[in-house]
Amino acid sequence: MDLKSSHASPVLADPTPVNKSRLGVHSSLLPYSQTGTSFSSSMYISIPRKNKPGVPDDVRSNGWLDAMLSSSPPRKKLIMDMNSDAVVTDETADNAYASWMLKYPSAINAFEQVTSAAKTKTIVMFLDYDGTLSPIVDDPDRAFMSDGMRSAVKSVAKYFPTAIISGRSRDQVYKLVGLTELYYAGSHGMDIMGPVRFDESDNHLNYHSSTDKKGKEFNLFQPAKEFIPMIDEVFKTLVKNTKGIKGAKVENHKFCASVHYRNVDRKNWPVVGQCVHDLLEKYPRLRLTHGRKVLEVRPVIDWDKGRAVQHLLDSLGLSGRDDVLPIYIGDDRTDEDAFKVLREGNQGFGILVSPFPKETQAFYSLRDPAEVMEFLTRLVNWKEVNDGVAVSAASVPGGQREC
């Protein structure tokens, strides 16, 4: 890939303000209005840890347990929370979802709106992995994407620059996807491989080059590189401290450590949370984020999937252009950062994958990975029928990326 970043350090620089009309997306195509966006100019963010005087600082008093309980609640509970209904039937749940879709319409039903906004533009596709390309399963090691989904993603990458942005480690998600045509961003965008090339005079520590097993050179952007030894230390401690909790699983994603409690008896969830809580007290430069039945320990830096999207667009030379339409498809809380960037900057569309209604910064929705595959397939068919109308991935410098 012969690409050149225009910034020596995109972590410390505020992104260029986005003009809402820049992309030419007519307001009638957007589900509802947007506002401007801004990022902190500092890489590090301040997170207060002190609790109120006299109140014990544990997972019950600081809201951790509530967040754990709400990370993946039953469908009917979500409907009850949103509508304050005492009893929720399947019919009520279906009606609630249909009502929710008026605000976040199906990307399949609204396909013509999406493609109308994409005319004469380069679509850039960003995809989460778990719950988006693969189903959510009890064992994260067995979250495999289907052959049909892999074929659909491969076809999308043939026409559009495509990136996977996952909470998993970059190496792990690459092994699961197994496509060399894509760009990969692991650890919520803290480990990006692909569209970055810098001059020899640019010796910023966040960038470094490496080679794969075939001897081919590639470039990495790792804004949290200095945290690797700390995360490794935390991972080993968490493995030791959760060893006696049946069903708990700890993963090292290189730039973050994840503690899964999906298979833990609910009565033991406070024990899991307390283990992580007590450990974080010793690491003020680390913070907690909640995922779908997972606690993630991450560096305290101003970096997330939204920043990763901006960085990838900038590195590809596709930011600040009227002829670019980014689309991000994801299902988790961490994907909301990317949805927010696209919504507030009026840059493109976020698509939430969810079988039940919930608040989101996305524009559109899809129910499950099966609908994601259908949407991707339709997008490819649309491109093939209208070949030559939009700029293809082949016209972007460097059409492929190999690990």
UniProtKB/TrEMBL annotation:
<dbReference type="GO" id="GO:0005992">
    <property type="term" value="P:trehalose biosynthetic process"/>
</dbReference>
<comment type="pathway">
    <text>Glycan biosynthesis; trehalose biosynthesis.</text>
</comment>
<dbReference type="InterPro" id="IPR003337">
    <property type="entry name" value="Trehalose_PPase"/>
</dbReference>
<dbReference type="InterPro" id="IPR044651">
    <property type="entry name" value="OTSB-like"/>
</dbReference>
<dbReference type="Pfam" id="PF02358">
    <property type="entry name" value="Trehalose_PPase"/>
</dbReference>
<comment type="similarity">
    <text>Belongs to the trehalose phosphatase family.</text>
</comment>
<dbReference type="InterPro" id="IPR023214">
    <property type="entry name" value="HAD_sf"/>
</dbReference>
<dbReference type="InterPro" id="IPR036412">
    <property type="entry name" value="HAD-like_sf"/>
</dbReference>
<keyword id="KW-0378">Hydrolase</keyword>
<comment type="function">
    <text>Removes the phosphate from trehalose 6-phosphate to produce free trehalose. Trehalose accumulation in plant may improve abiotic stress tolerance.</text>
</comment>
<protein>
    <recommendedName>
        <fullName>Trehalose 6-phosphate phosphatase</fullName>
        <ecNumber>3.1.3.12</ecNumber>
    </recommendedName>
</protein>
<dbReference type="GO" id="GO:0004805">
    <property type="term" value="F:trehalose-phosphatase activity"/>
</dbReference>
<dbReference type="InterPro" id="IPR006379">
    <property type="entry name" value="HAD-SF_hydro_IIB"/>
</dbReference>
<keyword id="KW-0346">Stress response</keyword>
